[in-house]
Amino acid sequence: MDRLPKCQANYVPLTPLTFLKRASMVYSNRTSIIYAGVRFTWLQTYERCCRLASTLRAMNIVKNNVVSVLAPNIPAMYEMHFAVPMAGAVLNAINTRLDAKNIATILKHSEAKIFFIDYQYVPLARDALRLLMANSEASMPLVVVIDDIDSPTGVRLGALEYEQLVARGNPRYSPEEIADEWDPITLNYTSGTTSEPKGVVYSHRGAYLSTLSLILGWEMKIAPVYLWSLPMFHCNGWTFTWGIAARGGTNVCIRNTTAKEMYESIELHKVTHMCCAPIVFNILLEAKPHERRPITTPVEILTGGAPPPAALLERIEKVGFHVVHAYGLTEATGPALVCEWQTKWDKLSSEEQGKLKARQGISVLTLADVDVKDPKTMKSVNRDGKSMGEIVLRGSSIMKGYFKDEGATNKAFRDGWFMTGDVGVVHPDGYLEIKDRSKDVIISGGENISSVEVEAALYKHPAVIEAAVVAMPHPKWGESPCAFVSLRNEAVGTVNEADVIKHCRKNLAHFMVPKKVEFVDELPKTSTGKIQKFQLRALAKTFVVQKENDSSSSGKRPRGKTTTSQINWEKPSYYHQNQEQIMALSRL
Ligand SMILES: Nc1ncnc2c1ncn2[C@@H]1O[C@H](COP(=O)(O)OP(=O)(O)OP(=O)(O)O)[C@@H](O)[C@H]1O
């Protein structure tokens, strides 16, 4: 038996590109993409991708060349997820919330040969290209502007425009053969929450398997109507760029994730599925009455990227959304764990259900194994829901490695495991729960305090809209929890520090209760909307607790004051005004 050889009939390299070709045949007339007044079928999408791929080849793009794109969730961005690898190249979708300096750094590091730019991002891209040009070691990519396909604007940066390249190409183009499924398909840079963004490389095989296992993990049926509320530049839309083709679904593309645009799309197109970070729940929940639309049939939401507090899960489900919680990282091709629902939980109260759903869950099918280990001994921790260790993963959805960074790659892989840098526990039922990032754990009097647990208690307070907890120096305990909280507009002035501490006492063990609560207008965030705890930690270090139960700080803001502080958080270099829009929205 073992002598039977592989041949082209029985051994085809795994690649998500096969999903598109299949969709063009089996779902040829079904709507593939909706964007404003534009609609495509799966056959049209396939032919447009063939055309673009053939033009890229004609432009001397060869195997493993990087093609970068800076665009929101528009049809071109979707098509490039197929067309670029169909030309044999590697897609690098850049986060549109980065600033010019970081975009220039990515273009240089990735050695991008072509840079596609959505017309709205031309000013930002121009600044990035200027910085790149000033760097004598960097080579300049060819620039292509993507004009709005629904209402062309005429904005240009050079001679080339996306639709011209599509029109010029061959719809009968035969995509480049994937010789080896281990070949790279995309290059995605991490969020830079804990360090500088790193270039994560996915293989065709990893992308294919991760796509399938997420479809199964989320139980996504045939022909979903998928709203693009998650940026496609996040781990290729957590693989749903490829996944919607696999299911013959409809991609509803929107430029901005405003409450109005999301609610309108849900109503108009009868959206069945969407993905988002928990921060988007706030946008949906805090929508103004004229922006809201009733959710008449349940919309499935897959959420992840940050811990969703149980209280927030409860609130969003009451509106009519049905949430599935997943945990993952760029390095794991998006979600690696899904909190698979158990029917016996249906009988529980909504509060208990929220708590169970807030756990990060069990591995997706592509992972061969997941564990929580003591990072020093690499021994598995007890499955008691209490013993903490580092979450480690192994399997086909784990990245190939970090591009041009052997040191970081070697550090990330240890003893056959990928080290996530996240601290978690395993419950007796096998479900994992993340307690913190390694760097965020608070050690108070020798006890580990999970900032995520304290935050979950804070979110239960009806006036709290956002909360983050970090370590603050304490003369007796070494460290103690310090909470940074932003309040709903109507609660500002009515809730004080003592109220919040009293609320925490009711919901947490005494040693976990924050010794200080600082009210802020906004919390500092990364380009992907994650809270930058390093900035909070730096500020918390300046707070001095004199004795037990005295939380007076170094002096600027007296205890119990009910107004919020307008702190000018140091903006990271990868930060620009879109971020402010998101924050403003989340606080409306
Ligand atoms: N469901 C979740 N619950 C809690 N935390 C989550 C969840 N999903 C993701 N995370 C956090 O997000 C991290 C992955 O984020 P991402 O890959 O975007 O880059 P980053 O880790 O934020 O950036 P960098 O690696 O550059 O610091 C995980 O390691 C984990 O800390």
UniProtKB/TrEMBL annotation:
Residues 547-569 are annotated as: Disordered. CDD domains: ttLC_FACS_AEE21_like. InterPro entries: AMP-bd_C, AMP-bd_C_sf, AMP-binding_CS, AMP-dep_synth/lig_dom, ANL_N_sf. Keywords: Ligase, Phenylpropanoid metabolism. SUPFAM superfamilies: Acetyl-CoA synthetase-like (SSF56801). Pathway: Phytoalexin biosynthesis; 3,4',5-trihydroxystilbene biosynthesis; 3,4',5-trihydroxystilbene from trans-4-coumarate: step 1/2. GO terms for biological process: phenylpropanoid metabolic process. Gene3D superfamilies: 3.30.300.30, N-terminal domain of ligase-like. It comes from the Eukaryota. The keyword Magnesium does not apply. Residues 22-403 form the AMP-dependent synthetase/ligase domain. Residues 453-530 form the AMP-binding enzyme C-terminal domain. Residues 551-568 have a biased composition (Polar residues). Pfam families: AMP-binding (PF00501), AMP-binding_C (PF13193). The keyword Nucleotide-binding does not apply. One of its GO terms (molecular function) is (E)-caffeate-CoA ligase activity. Belongs to the ATP-dependent AMP-binding enzyme family. This is 4-coumarate--CoA ligase. The lineage of its organism: Eukaryota, Viridiplantae, Streptophyta, Embryophyta, Tracheophyta.
